[in-house]
Amino acid sequence: MTESAFIHRFEPATSAGSPPLLLLHGTGGDENDLVGLGKMISPGSALLSPRGRVLEHGMPRFFRRLTEGVFDEEDVRRRALELGDFVADARQQYGITAPVAVGFSNGANIAAALLLLKPDALAGAILLRAMVPLSDPPKAALDGKPILLLSGQADPIVSASNSARLAALLSEAGARVDHKVLPAGHQLSQADVTLSRDWIGDVEAKAAAADPRSSKKLENNPIHSSR
Ligand code: MLT
């Protein structure tokens, strides 16, 4: 892997029909944070889970911010492209197809930026408590990519108008956006897990209908960790 390498964890797929997941943690998290969530929502998927390379008072993040909800957009762009390079390298190294991102909070925001800046890097995304990452995003061609956006009605960090704007931005770029507002705050709830699991199941079923060979079972492989 090149200099773009992030500290990360990789777990191989146990079912060829399940899409690989790119797990992107929130501020202060690491590569282990969302592995449990990934296994709950798609038990057979390969899991690729990098640690954000920016430190804010020692807490890992995926890009710099000036203050809560105000982003250093130059850094957002640079870091999103770096993450795209990492995904491309990891796809080669581990032999996986373009992953579906599963991002929470800061991880959801970098996933949204990656979708807008480098749409081919991802097959789709589950964005948990995401907000608009760039005030002047480029025109992206998301060409029917499936995106599940789950927002919290009482989220003190992401306003209802901001998440609605993100949903509109992604839809206008051609994505198939499913936006749901849950009776929750910024933290995740059981409803996030259930809705994400059902949504991934649907994505898998559609892929299997398009290519029936993809549902073949794989052997169980050991866990890899890499720095
Ligand atoms: C961000 O900085 O990406 C958002 O404010 C979410 C957070 O990390 O608190």
Automatic annotation (TrEMBL):
Pfam families to which the protein is assigned, alphabetical: Abhydrolase_2 (PF02230)
InterPro entries from the UniProt entry: AB_hydrolase_fold, LYPA1-2/EST-like, PLipase/COase/thioEstase
Keywords assigned by UniProt, alphabetized: Hydrolase
Ranges in coiled-coil conformation: none
Residue ranges of domain Phospholipase/carboxylesterase/thioesterase in the record: 21-193
GO molecular function: hydrolase activity
Family to which this protein belongs: Belongs to the AB hydrolase superfamily. AB hydrolase 2 family.
Protein name listed in UniProt: Alpha/beta hydrolase
